[in-house]
């Protein structure tokens, strides 16, 4: 009788035991399942695995014979990781309550963690949000100037709006007037800042 190389991996509900038995004849392979053990036999090749570290359901467990290996699927009687194949352990059905107990705890912390991340993200976005001139009178720059003109334009009457649009367009953005009586008489000349000169854009 010779021993056979084998290995396993597990999930919460099953354990897969791989027996490396090349060219095994499905008609000759016999696997006997027990609640806390199993025996594999193929001619003079035998493998005893007991006591299993957890309890299985013999009725639901099965095996499949391949060309180079035999895969034995052990269905666990209670969900949970064994952490090993063989070993003495208390009744796994009693342990199933303790193994599944941390799950609600983990689930309960998840919303808390998500809530904290949401709050943190909101705080960062609020801190990066540009302040308006009403929130901070020290804010300066083009954004504040544009906001001022937008508010002025929105609250102006039709004549003031026409004066602002005409003066801004005709002066190339160098002048802005709110006096329609003055602007309507003639084109508004370009008035570049001191020290600079206006040039027409050429393609």
Question: Which percent range describes the beta-strand content?
Answer: 15-25%
* Rg, alpha carbons: 41 Å
Number of separate strands: 7
pLDDT averaged residue by residue: 78
| Number of helices, counting only DSSP H or I runs of 4 residues or more | 5
Element-level helix/strand string = EEEEEEEHHHHH
Order of strands, widest sheet:
1-2-7-6
N/C terminus separation: 94 Å
**Low-confidence stretches at least 5 residues in length (pLDDT < 50)?**
none
Q: How would you sum up the global shape?
A: rod-shaped
Q: How would you classify the helix and strand content by structural class?
A: alpha+beta
Largest sheet: 4 strands, antiparallel
Helix content: 25-40%
What would you say this structure looks like, in words?
A 4-stranded antiparallel β-sheet has the order 1-2-7-6, with no helix packed on it. The mean pLDDT is 78. 33% of the residues lie in helices and 19% in strands. A hairpin with a 3-residue loop joins strand 1 and strand 2 (14-19). It is built from 5 helices and 7 strands, in the order E-E-E-E-E-E-E-H-H-H-H-H. With 203 residues, the chain is α+β, with helices and mostly antiparallel strands. It is rod-shaped and about 115 Å long. The longest helix has 27 residues, at 102-128.
Summarize the structure in short.
With 203 residues, the chain is of the alpha+beta class.
Secondary-structure blueprint:
Blueprint: E1 6-10, E2 14-19, E3 29-34, E4 37-42, E5 45-49, E6 62-65, E7 70-75, H1 92-100, H2 102-128, H3 142-155, H4 158-170, H5 180-183
Antiparallel strand pairs: 1-2, 2-7, 3-4, 4-5, 6-7
């Amino acid at each position: 009788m010779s021993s056979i190389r084998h290995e396993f991996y597990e999930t919460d509900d099953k354990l897969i035991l791989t027996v490396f038995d090349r060219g095994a004849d499905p008609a000759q392979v016999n696997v006997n399942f027990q609640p806390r053990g199993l025996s594999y036999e193929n001619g003079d090749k035998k493998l005893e695995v007991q006591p299993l570290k957890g309890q299985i359901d013999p009725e639901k467990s099965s095996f499949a014979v391949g060309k180079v290996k035999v895969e034995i699927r052990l269905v666990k009687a209670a969900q949970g990781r064994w952490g090993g194949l063989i070993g003495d352990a208390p009744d796994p059905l009693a342990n199933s309550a303790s193994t599944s107990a941390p799950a609600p705890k983990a689930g309960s912390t998840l919303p808390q963690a998500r809530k904290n991340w949401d709050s943190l993200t909101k705080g960062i976005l609020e801190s990066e949000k540009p302040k308006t001139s009403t929130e901070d009178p020290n804010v300066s720059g083009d954004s504040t100037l544009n906001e001022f003109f937008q508010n002025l334009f929105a609250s102006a009457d039709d004549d003031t709006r026409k004066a602002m649009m005409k003066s801004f367009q005709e002066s190339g953005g160098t002048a802005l007037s709110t006096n329609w009586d003055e602007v309507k008489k003639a084109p508004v000349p370009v008035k570049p800042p001191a020290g600079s000169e206006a040039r027409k854009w050429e393609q």
